Amino acid sequence: MKIASVIVDVPSRQTDRPFDYIIPEQWEDILKPGMRVTVPFGPRRLQGFVVGIKSHSEVERLKPIEAVLDVTPVLNEELLELGKYLTETTLCFAISAYQAMLPAAMKAKYEKEIHLIREEYRPLLPQEIQALFAGRSAIAWKEVEQAKLWRTVQKRFSKDIWKLCTKSKRRREKSSQTYSISFTAATNQTSHRGDAGAGGEAKASVNVPSF
Question: CA quadruple 118, 121, 123, 124: dihedral positive or negative?
């Protein structure tokens, strides 16, 4: 049994420490430090960052992780250590430090999609993934989860055959904005594109650490 240490999204002194959760069997070889998860916390369900993985815990009754939100870590080891350092040397909470390291669009609700980088790469896909695409250039991440192909997708991100895109919508008064984030293993760059409706289009790009 593997256990994840998770910093939950409750910025308070009482919760400013890792809490242990059981990693369900289907995610044991997938979950890594720096990935975000959804966990039960009292009567609530909260998001959190995995900051460590171990084989035992001092807590007898542990609850399991309910959902894994990322395919690859959004924070690397150096950023996790930086967050820990900030909590030890300043008045900053760990969750606040980690949240500040993420692009703004990743803090909103979004849907994930898998996109082929080039059409000529389609024959290089595993047969089960080719069947899932079924002639399309993009598939919803929910389809990958339903087909239980999480491991296949995660292990082949380093092949630079496909990329993970996320789309989120934020409503402000009468207008809406759509953002997208694309991850590619080749460039280690996260790109943001925002469609501001009547306000025009805004684009930005930031580098992210190597995973």
Answer: negative
Question: Which of 65-69, 137-141, 154-158, 206-210 reaches the highest mean pLDDT?
Answer: 65-69
**DSSP state, residue 14:** G
Buried b (16+ CB within 10 A) or exposed e, 79-108: bbeebbebbeeeebbbbebbbebbbebbee
Give residues with Cβ within 8 angstroms of 187, minimum separation 6: none
Dihedral in degrees, nearest 10, Cα atoms 13, 14, 17, 20: -160
Using CA atoms, how far residue 162 sits from 32, 60, 158, in Å, is 20, 41, 9
Q: What is the pLDDT of residues 47-101, one digit of tens each?
A: 999 999 999 999 889 999 999 988 889 999 999 999 999 999 998 999 999 999 9
Contact yes or no for 102/63 (Cβ under 8 A): no
Locate tokens 């809490």: which residue? Answer: 19
Please give the DSSP secondary-structure letter assigned to residue 206. Answer: E
Reference 77, options 101, 58, 93; nearest CA is 101
Which segments of the chain does DSSP mark as H helices, in order? 77-89, 94-100, 127-133, 141-146, 150-155
Amino acid (one-letter) located at 43? P
